[in-house]
Design brief:
Layout: E1 11-12, E2 16-21, E3 26-36, E4 40-45, E5 55-59, E6 65-75, E7 81-87
Antiparallel strand pairs: 1-3, 2-3, 2-5, 3-4, 4-7, 5-6, 6-7
């Protein structure tokens, strides 16, 4: 049985979020989740992020806030980007906000 590098299944879920640059405390990008797990998410965004950047992910309702690390940033043909996030703390209960 092969491993794809991920230990848990991601759940498809579209939740509006903001990625905040930790050092500047400014909202850097409005985004939406594509899929989520307790330890990471795939995000659709308009900004090109660099691997190892560490934004804070925040839901638009403000109920969810967690530090994260950019794992990858893939350009899409429409000018958007898909970003892989690794959470630096675990999120146990994802729910639409």
């Amino acid at each position: 049985m092969g491993l794809d590098g991920r230990n848990e299944k991601r759940v498809p879920m579209a939740i509006p979020v903001c990625l905040v640059v930790a050092e500047k405390r400014l909202v850097a990008d409005q985004a939406v989740t594509v899929n989520v797990s307790a330890h990471g998410a795939r995000i659709l965004t308009r900004r090109r992020w660099q691997p190892q950047e560490q934004p804070r992910l925040a839901s638009s309702s403000g109920e969810l806030r967690t530090p994260a690390k950019i794992v990858y940033c893939e350009p899409l043909t429409d000018g958007h980007f898909c970003v892989g996030l690794q959470f630096l703390s675990t999120i146990m209960d994802w729910k639409p906000m």
